[in-house]
């Protein structure tokens, strides 16, 4: 329910108070989910394991315990398969490996489902093994050790979720090879003399915020403008200039047009970058 809320909120259209939209809601709810796993899942498992070691007692209702584990294995295993297939499909579309897609947290909601269910399936296996040893030997310490193992597993998963989603919320850079491609595209353009202070932030869900300070070559921009003009007519206009007022009117007219040409070059570069 929490992840579904985050997905629906992240799809909201930007408004004046949130001009960049609500994409980060996926990371926020995934972070909350990770903290919840750590506090509730890992915390209760560790508590049960420690109490069991300090005050061991026989396990009651083993049949019900095995039925619950079996039901958990079926439900968690089914959603785990769905998450694996979804990540494989998305990773293939992005040209990434399964591991890269998960580590880079490209889709936080799917990652949470994948890691939670993977931890749940492994935890069921650990719990069933330790409960089986307890039922065979009559030693309750096996069950307590299993609880500690489950708690450690959940704690590790939650720590990974907290770390990756925090990194995404802080604004991490895109991959170096992608940033280099964008930088080379700008530097190779004839209208660009130099670029400075390049930053590219991964906003999540295939959105990137790119920023660069660009030093444009004024001669190239002006030449681009002149190529679209009738040079002979332009020369006649210059020859007709006799007064300061006429010179000012001539400069204002063509100066504004050259600035418009620069704006068109900026739009072209933005389109190429996208």
Automatic annotation (TrEMBL):
GO molecular function: monoatomic cation transmembrane transporter activity
Main location, first listed in the record: membrane
Gene3D superfamilies: Cation efflux protein transmembrane domain
One annotated Gene Ontology cellular component of this protein: endoplasmic reticulum
Keyword Transferase in annotation: no
Subcellular location: Membrane
Signal peptide span: none
Keywords noted in UniProt: Membrane, Transmembrane, Transmembrane helix, Transport
Pfam hit, one: Cation_efflux
Entries under PANTHER family matching the protein: HUEL-CATION TRANSPORTER, PROTON-COUPLED ZINC ANTIPORTER SLC30A9, MITOCHONDRIAL
Entry protein name: Zinc transporter 9
UniProt organism field: Cathartes aura
Source organism phylogeny: Eukaryota, Metazoa, Chordata, Craniata, Vertebrata
């Amino acid at each position: 329910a929490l992840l579904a809320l985050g997905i629906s909120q992240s799809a909201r259209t930007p408004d004046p108070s949130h001009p960049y939209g609500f994409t980060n809601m996926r990371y926020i709810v995934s972070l909350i989910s990770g903290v919840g796993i750590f506090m509730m899942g890992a915390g209760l498992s560790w508590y049960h394991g420690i109490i069991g070691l300090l005050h061991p007692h026989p396990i009651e209702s083993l049949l019900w315990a095995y039925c619950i584990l079996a039901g958990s294995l079926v439900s968690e295993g089914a959603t785990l398969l769905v998450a694996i297939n979804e990540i494989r499909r998305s990773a293939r579309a992005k040209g990434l490996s399964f591991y890269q897609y998960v580590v880079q947290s490209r889709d936080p909601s799917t990652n949470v489902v994948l890691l939670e269910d993977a931890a749940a399936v492994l935890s069921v296996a650990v719990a069933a093994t330790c409960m089986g040893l307890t039922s065979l030997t009559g030693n309750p310490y096996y069950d307590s050790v299993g609880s500690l193992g489950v708690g450690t597993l959940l704690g590790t998963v939650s720590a990974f979720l907290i770390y990756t989603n925090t990194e995404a919320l802080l604004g991490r850079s895109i991959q170096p090879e992608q940033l280099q491609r964008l930088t080379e595209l700008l530097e190779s353009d004839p209208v660009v003399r130099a670029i400075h202070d390049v930053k590219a932030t991964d906003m999540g869900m295939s959105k990137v915020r790119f920023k660069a300070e660009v030093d444009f070559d004024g001669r190239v921009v002006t030449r681009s403008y002149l190529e679209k003009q009738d040079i002979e007519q332009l020369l006649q206009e210059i020859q007709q200039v006799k007064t300061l007022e006429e010179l000012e009117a001539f400069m204002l007219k063509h100066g504004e047009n050259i600035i418009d040409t620069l704006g068109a070059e900026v739009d072209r570069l933005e389109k190429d970058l996208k």
